[in-house]
Fold each of these.
Amino acid sequence: MPDGASSRVRRRDRWLHAAAFTFGLALGVHHVTVGLILPACAALVLLTEGAKFFSGRRLWIAAGWACAGLGIYVHLPLAAARSPLMNWGDPRTFDRFLAHVTGWQYRVYFEARPELMMRQLADFASRLLHEFGPAWFPAALILAIIGSVCIYRRARPLFWFLCIGVAANLAYNMNYEIAEDKDAYYLPVFLFLILAAACGVRQLPALLRMKSRRGFRLDHVAAVVLLLAVPGAAAVSNYAWNNRRNYYIAQDYVQNMLSTVAPGGMLLTLDWQVYSPMLYLQEIENLRKDAIVIDINHLRRPWYFPYLERTYPETMHRLRAQVQSFLEDLRLWEQDPELYQRDATLNRRISARFQDLILTLIAGHARSAPVYVTQEIATYGVEGADRGWVEEMVGNYQLVPQGLVFQLFGDREFHEPAHPALVTRGLVDGTLRFAPDDVVTLKVLPVYAGMSYNRGRYLSTHGRHQDAAEAYREALKFDPGFVPARRALAGAYQ
């Protein structure tokens, strides 16, 4: 190879090495969304450098740079070895490290079902229209189509890079039951469409070809106007949804929930929207450290128990026998989950030990301090292994609504339900807006409305119909379309 050509290759390879290193670093942020771009990158290299690249040393050098960036994952076992407060995944061993970085616990949400794919596709279409501005002004998507045609004609490798990247991302997301962070998984698609739209804007003058008599280029003016209008329309239409300057929903939610939890009380929940901000406010802001808050879902992870033993030593000491029995099965299940699917005896044993652990936890704490549960537990919003212990709990205790939680009582006497003054900044006063699939709409507001409704039902059962009617009206303030509250309110008047 001539010296000039060799020099050009070396200069190009500097960019290749930088891109490979950046790719490795990006895998440490979110390996799924970033890793799905790898087929597109391979296609781009194949179409620009040829198949010989994959059999030469340049590939191995680039892979080495990617691995160097991927070295950011070394932080995980190093941090875990220092025994942090909550050692999520406990990635100190190779098996746990591999399970943690590959999202082992989330694989249950990945399932290829036609109905799931259609639902996810419809959700993606809705988000796509919302992301790039109002649905009645799809200029960005039209520009992306124009830009894609232009890229296909002028830069075929880049075109296939974009197409394969979009296809890989959508293929994964269509088969994954994503929870509240769906937007993050679609970011590569949105970025690819923005790139195509930018090429579409560049192509506008050639498409418009307008020129005034004085030589003033109207096509350039139109292109500039559209270039400003597209992001401007998206910013204006989405500002109200994304403005979080006065966002206190999570803080108020936790403080409202804890306002009726007595000192030393225990709160059990299955709702991550409760436990996540609760964990932050307790551990970082030292709010209500006296309250014992436990996430039932996390009890299915061995790494959660060291946190509980460090944070609530007396509570865990009373459960030593139940914890040891359950962990014996839990660690074996983590090593071979299919074994428990095949063996009905093992399946029943781990379920029985899990149920015994929770019921013993409740009974032991109830002897000295109140026990509370969140709404999804008390109203049977549970499935699978949780169903058994919830049914037995409801059979053993009376559940009385106290603000945003239920308190467990061992008798069947009437207990005055607490009605605290709830702080709901931005929730229903119109200062914040929430999309239909926002976590506030799906998870938080139903708790406020539902607990007001549950208080009304409890009061109505004990003949307090006027107070019940007031509770139903409060529920309708949080959700005017809450049909059970409307019906109950009509019945209370009768």
Amino acid sequence: MKIAYITYQYPTLSQTFIQREIKSVAALGLEIEVHAMRGRAIPFDHFIPPGVVIYPFSLLRLWTLIYKIPQELFRDPALIVRGIQFLQGKRWRGFDDFLINLLGIGFAFATVDRFRQSEVDHYHGVWATGMTTAAALLAKMTGKRFSMGAHAFDLYRHGGDSFLKEKLARAVFIHTTTEANVRYLRHLVPQSNVILSRRGLESLPDLSLKKSNSCFTILSVARLVPKKGLEYQIKICQELKRQGFPFIHRIIGEGTLRDGLQKEIEAAGLQKEIQLLGALSQKEVQEYYAQSDLFWHTGLVDAEGDRDGLPNVIPEAFSWGLCVLSSPTPGADEAVLHGETGWISDPRQIESTARAIQELAVNQELRQKLGEEGRRWVEAHFMSSQNAMILEKAFREFSLSASLESVGDHLSYPTHQ
């Protein structure tokens, strides 16, 4: 069975979790093609799983739409009617939403001839935006079926993708990674087939590689965007310094807020305490996990409604036996259980969070206990070889079932992990 994964860019440093997912699903016997609508973000072939074929799409091919759209409409005039019905009464939820869906439509028309000649059995849009638009349109034009992922910004930012409900209703299944998302998706479209399959790690790191520090060292790995709540980290670090607590805080990641965060760090006089390290390779990130005493996640719901699901950096920190301090957000709180696998503190509560950091710094025994329990959580819930089996089963059984109406009647998939 051949699956066409449709992504935005592939591979990318910020989405190594997708690469691990594809590798693990392919290892179970499914043939995977990856179609990247914006090509590659990085050129390195070692990010590409063995046996997986990558098709980076060039935007220059969109010129072919001049004749390919009329060609397809001549082949199936009903596409015009369906398109009008689909768009009727809709309002775009932002210019970027308009552009990514438009790219998905263009990609589908530009590549449909190639897909007709291929042996692809099923299309899978990795995110619910333009990638799923492309998957749905290609499935319609080639007589196949499609599934979709729905995880974070594509569900919540500005209320989610402009055509989210329509896509959810038409997909043979929806893949998501948190129990909070399962509830939300079933609220939107109760009859949808929602599959909970968390991402995962291929293996656990060797804890003998961990290093001790002379100064208490905190680590955050996050894109520098509003939903990560990094401005609160600076305020809390300022409070820690005011109280005379010695520490080093390293932030790995890039994003639109970098310049603003750097100015805030300088204004607070924290140049020695806070290091903005930028985007790093996966190997370098792992080395910083090994050098840290505490992992800090301050995800929030931003002004546009965007939020994380379960950030993959939390289980990655767990795997290193690190104590994780997290904000109380849905998704993260499914893994970080206060006092059991980690510690919860609202970063908007500056003084109480600063106090929590100092208490965790002093209580090494508690940090070690929480880190050990977090690693056990990863072993039970976040290994890619286990979670990929859920996706592989869904691809095979939903795609090959006799009729769409009967899909799901005889299948049992986890909705709680």
Amino acid sequence: MNGSLLDDFELPLTAALRDGLRLTSIAAPVLALDAVHRLWQSRAVVLWHPPAGLRAVGAGVAATVRVDGAARFARARGLSRRAWPSDTSGHEAHAPPPRLWGGFAFAPGAAALAPWTAFGDGSFVLPRLTYWLDGPRAWLQAVGPAADDTLARELAAALAQLVQLAATAADAEDAADEPYRAPPGTQAPLDAAAWHRQVEDILRAIGDARVRKVVAASCAELSFGQALSVAGVLDNLHSETGPVWRFAMSRQGSTFLGASPEMLVRRRGDVVQSEALAGTLAKALGSGTDLLASAKDLREHAFVRDGIVQALAPLCGALDAPRAPMLRELSRLYHLATPIEGRLARPLHVLELCELLHPTPATCGTPRADALRMIVGAEARPRGWYAGPVGWFDAAGDGEFIVALRCGLLAGRHAYVHAGAGIVEGSQADKELAETQLKQGVLLRALGLVHG
């Protein structure tokens, strides 16, 4: 067996490769997703709560894949072939197939330093236990080495816990009585002068025709008197209304979580979907009509739409991408959005599509290579997984990845909250900084630090 291949897997998968993985799925009671996450929080590895459709919580580790370097997308695709269960004799026919959950850093090396080292350039987990929720139906799934005689007992014990939880749940949403508030803490002061220098450098590059757009990001660094509650923050993120993906990915005691409004790519069979999301206005500063009439925001949005279309059009026999954007309304923001859908002319794994699309002009800029160089060279704190692709894929190559926005990393008593703004001709540093702070407010509100 290829030793270099096994080096990229954690020990649970190494053992499983020898014995083969077994999959068992059974019907389970319908519960609030967050209640299951709290039940399993000491070993939870994923929560996935899209605006509609299948939702999941995963706990424990049956297999992991970790990749680094420029070839991370291709390497993750190749290594994943060893991660899927070979024994599915106990799998209920209507239950979802297993998925690898995880994501990628914004750029290779962006997660090389603390606090991101547990996440790396790319990492995925196949949970040992997964609770699936699809409207009025739910399943419990277990994956482990075929020779592991503890798996059946673990599955039975987990089902008993879920049944007990269903019997004692106060209501279907399992809402907390009081919103979570983080313990007392401090926030590192923002270097506003550095932000202005960065924006001015970008505007000079735009004026010299070296780039047309660059996304600048800032990071709020917070320290608290005691460890933060992942479950509490996830509960509070329910207040973010509109079509958002609530997610949490945990690695070695740290959790990357958020409520992102932006899908990067979805593949189901030969159908591929993406969307351009760029152009932002706070509801407190104007109306949706104002945003739709903003020349600066329409120009920024067009860069993103055109970049996605140029990447997908050669791969598709047909591609639908409306010329005029629609309005996306969230709790406190308006965005310009363009849905994009096509039919693939040849089979492509969702990770291949991720690699083609990431980073889009919405989170990087255009031309992409030049904008990326400016970002990596200028930002004081590497982005880690902020603005990277986060999501899932299965053995068939189907999957869904979002852009990790409105998010933060919780690491014990510390939190790191990134946000960005697209700098184009006509941008003003103070207004763009205010936009990043407005976006950071999603996580700061979830921590109980910002109100209103």
Amino acid sequence: MSGLRIAFFGSSLVSAYWNGAATYYRGIIRAFAERGHQITFYEPDAYERQKHRDMDDPPWAKVVVYAPTEPDLWRAVEDALDADLLIKTSGIGVFDELLESALPATRSSHTIAAFWDVDAPATLDRVTANENDPFRTQIPKYDLVLTYGGGDRVVNEYKQLGARDCVPIYNALDPDSHFPVAPEPRFAADMGFLGNRLPDRESRVEEFFLRAAEVAPDLSFLLGGNGWDGKKLPGNVRYIGHVFTRDHNAFNCSVRAVLNVNRASMASYGFSPPTRVFEAAGGGACLITDAWAGIGVFLEPGREVLTAENGADVSAIIQELTPHRARAIGQAAYRRILGEHTYRHRADQLERVLDAHQRTRRNGARKMTSPEPKESISTR
């Protein structure tokens, strides 16, 4: 398809600080830019993300940072309205409700308006629980809903709420950003977990990570991410705070195994692998994950990934895991992800989706502009 002008309203492209979706945005946008599409990413100066940038403005996207005020927001909206594709993501954290109604209502006639939900299980749980949620009335106004994951359940629930189309664009690997590196002593441990402290994640981290550490006091555990300050931790758990994305490769390649713990809503829906899964596999790390429906779509349990039902399972796995087996599992995952689950694969999928929507809009426009057929005149 020919190069599109894309306006993307999201939390942040340049900062992963309290913004786990950053690497997802980067992977998708970079892969799309490589295909000749022009992307402008609009993000608010909020939550101290600009103070905690982990990358400069990239050459493959224009970044527009706006002040978290209505006048600056409207200037950003006006600047974006003539794009071929106008995207509003979930969870920006500033004027979400206003943007969700403004973008489909004010776009140009040729523009495809898409809502990109990076936390579909949480959004759907919220909207279905509250019939007066303002986003319910906006869903049918978008041409397309894209989701971070969720499988058929997410697709079906969005369509029941009036979505014209809903397509999961799963997380993936950006092999230019995440790859094997030499281990670093500062990240040495038997098992590492990297994730921010969030309400629907904390109890699962307690079960799958902290409980596993308690059961295996002779092993070392490494915890990275925001918000765990003040949390009571077992003596064999070392907390290192926020880990910048530039250090993710070293983190993944320095521990014997990397633990993934899905948030409660993601685990209940399944088919929602977070970026950490692909980052770890991209580094050739041995991944242990909490069990969730759909894991086999991405990695084969037992050969490319190890799965656990609870903290006791995690503890047993890590105590029995030899360095040789850990390397074999990590290498198998690396090959699978490179072959099937990079952001270039996701860009292929997204282009096919957008091409179909462009054809639909063009056909609709032709039908609207074609003259009405004249009534036949009887000769009787």
